[in-house]
Structure formats: C-alpha cells, structure tokens
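Progress against Task 2.4 (sequence-to-structure conversion) is shown through the following example record, which the project officer requested during the mid-term review.
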Amino acid sequence: VVWLYKRFSFENILALRVQTLGGGIGSMYHLCEGTTGPAAEKLTAVDFGNANPPKDVKNYFYSIENPREYLMDGDDAVVVERGPYPLKKFSIRHDVAFAESTLTEAEAPNANGAVDYDVANAYIVLDQDTALTTNLERSTADLSLDWSGAATELASHPLLEKTIPAHLAMSDEITNLSPPFLSALGAMNDEFNLILSLSCTAEQIANIELAGTNTGAGDKAQCNASQMNDFAETDCACCMHDVAYQANVGGAQATFLNCRDFLDEGTTAVSTLSLLAQYDGGIAVKEAGEAKYDGSGDNYIQTKYEQTTIYSPLVQTHTVNDVTFGYPSAVIGKIVPAALLSTAEKAHYDANDSTRGATVDVATAMLTGQMDDVLPFALGDVAAYTKKVATVCSSSCEAVDASDDLYDSPLGWTCSGNAPGRYETDDSDEIAVGGIDCMPYSPTFATVMQCTAIDTHLASNSNDPEYLACVCADGSNDWASEGCCLAAGMLDGEDLTGNGCLFEVEGVLGDTNYAGTASGSTSVNIGTALESYITNEPSSKTSRFTCPATGAPTLEEHDLFNRYEAHEGQSSYELYYATGNPRIQQDDKSTVTNSSDIYSIAASSGFEMTYVPPKGLEFN
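Structure tokens generated for the chain above:
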C-alpha cells in the first residue's frame, strides 16, 4: 500500500482504475514452491488467527430528511449521516491452483508463477453478543476443505461483543436516491423515455421528431396498435410532440397520439410505476387534487389501480439491513423487462438468422438472465430470485375479501412485514435474504388474482385476443398459489410480461451473507456460513503473481511482486483512497496532532479538499 502511495500521483490515488494491485495478506514471494510450505498454508489459513484475521467493517449512510421538497421543489437536501453500523468480515481463500504467470517475461516461466484462488466471506453484524463456532478444517497435504466434523468453539474469536452504538439498529431507515433506478434511467436516457419504452421501441421513439412534420418523404405516421413496440416496425412514430399536435388541429392530429398523454396518471405506465414505487419504499410526490403531469390543467384524482397518492421510485426508503445486504425491487423487476422486451426480441432475431422467436420464449430467456450480455441493463435471473423471496415473504401476504372494491386491484393483494432475520433461521437460502422488507413481494402475490381472472375468462372465451394465459418464467405454475415472475399474460388488453418479477438490488457490501443461526441458538457457525457461500456463489477467481524470474534485484519484473493479475474474476477494478475510513469524516483534522500531516489539495480536476493520510502512511 505504501508503494502505491509513492508511485501514483494524488489525483490517480483518489479513483484509480488499475490492472493489478498488491494486497494485504503477507508476502507471496515463496509460493513458487506450490501447495507445500508455510506461504501456501498462510494463504489458505482457516483459523482466523494472525494469518487471516477477520476485518472490521463500519458502514455510514446519508439519509435525506426532506425528500419531497428536494425532489419536487428544488430545495437543497437536508442530509443526516447515520453510523457507524459495525460488522466483522471473515474470509478464506480456497480452490487454490497454480499456473504460469501472464505478467512474467521470462523465457522459461516458473510453472507456479501465479496462484489462483476463490474467496468466500461471512459477515457478523455486531448488534448483539455473538458466540462463534466452526466445523471447518483444512488439509495441510492438498489444502482441501472439510466440514464433516462437529462444530467447536472458534478459538481465535469465541465471542464477538456488541459494538453498535446504543442509538442505532439495523432496522433504522435510510432515505436516499435509488442506485438501481438511476441505472435504469441511464439505460433509457431519461424518465420520459423510460415511460415511452413501455409502449414503443427505441426507433419508434426516435421517430417522434418526424411525426407530423410535413417535410415530405421524412414524415412518420403514427404506429397503429399492432405496430407499437414491434421491433420490425421502424417506420412509424410512437406519438407526436404536443407542439406539433396542437399545430395540427383538425388535420394530422386526428391520427396521432399526443406524447404528453403518456404522462396521464390514469395510464397503465404511470399507474404501474407509482404502484411499484410505493412497494419499493418510494416517496410520495403528489396527492389527489394536485395538477396532473400531462399539462392538461386538470387535477389528479386517482391512478388506474385506485391510488390517490403518486409515488416516485427515484428516492426510496430502506432499512440499514437491506441497504447493507441487498433487497428486492418490484420497480426494476417489472419496468426494465417491459421496457427492454423489444430490444431483447431484436437481439434474438439477429442472433438466429433473422428468425423471430416467440415472445414468451424471449421473455423467459431475458427474465432468467440468459440475455444479460446483449441488453443495456443486466437483470440477472430475476425469476429465480423472485422464487427465493417467495420462500420468506409469501406467508406475509393477504388479499381483501372478494366483496371489497379492491379485490380486482393489485392494491387488494399486499404483503407486509419482514422476512425472518439472520438470527431466526438456519436455512442458508433464508439467511441470504434475512430480514428483507416483504412489501415488494406484493405485485408477485397479485399475479394470483390477475392470472386467475385470465384463466376464468379464457375458460368461456378462449379466442379473446385481449386475454392470454399466464406463464411463469421459472417454469412453475405458482401463479395459482403464491404468485410468480411472469414471462407472459394479458388481462383485458394489459400486457403482464414482467409482472411479479423482483430484481435483486446489491447491498453496499456487494456480497451475499450466509452467516446466521436458528431462533433460540446462542452461536453462529462460521464454517457452515462459508460452506454455504462456496456452494451457492459463482466462482470468481483471483490470480496473483508470485515468482519473478531469477536475476538481479533491479529487474523490472521484481516490481510485479505481490501484484494481482485478476481480482475477483476481473482484470481491472476501481479502487478508492481516502483517510482509511469508509468516508471522509468532518472531524479528521481534530484527530491529527501534527499539522504537517494535513495537506490541502487542489487537484487538476478542479476540486479542492483537505487530505489526511491513513496511519502509518506518508503523503508523497
């Protein structure tokens, strides 16, 4: 680390994309000998002693206290910092193998020039006293791992004491901008494009500029119902700009949709976005009686689903538990697949010799993560994740009585409460989503109502083009019981593709945690948690250079000592430096006794800041 501070200029240290980087697990210079010897044993140690001690993690979060005024009125955000929320991170390196290094320029590279390994992690939240056990053992002969023995006290850390401040809890709520929704906006360019993309292809949206322009051959006609959102229909427009629409009164206007009508709160698009935003913890931005978004001058009354409040997914409220470890998003799970369906169909068409695939097959591939490499937004296997959330949240759902006016609305089919916490279950799948908010599962549960209505209608009207039977993307028939992520379905003309799907939002740790214990138990088995991690998480190899060629110490190749060739499966990654804390604290200066350790920086990028180096490092 010291070497990095001396080697790179300060502006590069702030946000440095590096190809390789040294790490803090001790010298790997002697790994040339392979899986034998003290260096290899140190690399793969599993006792969490001096060779691989657990790391302290402290998370701080910023919460916006005036979200509506900030978002709707342009006020400055009133921000409160909350933290620290402390955790202990236990890591092991496993599945070790050796190969020739890609960094060496030696004519005869050492066969053990690079060591490859996977990393497994487990996290203990320090919000209570927690006893630790382990059943994990490692063979000194071949470095293999074994969990067959009985769990015994973890000698190096038999007890982790509660260190979270008394006024804090993992159930604290944080209100801030939604990273996944911002990413979705980036993929669609802006919010209006996102709404239009639910009904039209990208080409049809681009053709809006030529709708009703009376410029001759460049004019674009209005897409009809069968052309809308069909990737092959590239010569028609999604709608007409309001200015052009008003200028064509009595003429072309009669054949066009007004683009501003897509913003009507009674449309399926805005109604769906608001409904799912409410489930995702979005903030209220409009009440009945306020002016509508479409510029008509009329007042808003209610959405298609009888909501009298409009919610925005741009700013959301989530618990610290969910922000730390991840949570489900109903907004992303539905809106992104619906908006990208035509893009997915076009990609399938191009990849299959101009053969159009069945929409349900393309949707299934998209919702199971098989098309992530050709879409501008990677969804992952939302169908499988939705099923995982069902195991912990479906029992929290309830429908109103059939006589209630909301029985035929998604608002009548809701879920509440939280999934079992990590100290309430020993099931690894349940621990992975421990404590999440179950409200986002509501639209999944509502597919029971929607698909049952479709099934009933088709029983007596099998050829009605406004209805299409539901298909679960995971291949099940769960729409009949607990709900599922839909790859197909149409209810009275409303396309249900993507309904009920939940997107897995990554927590700030960027990792899944399997450390937990059954209710009533007094200890957590770290060995079992790491075994679950290795079993469930995909391999993501890290590769480190270990053996320079024999020669004088001045060889450039010696500068590659202890460098990464790949880190967690990536050949490059972002690394940030600040003060050694998770963020720069306002009181950093007060902790520095030597004024020469404080540096005022005017970086070439134009910003100014005060920089205090971490302990033990000097600024160069």
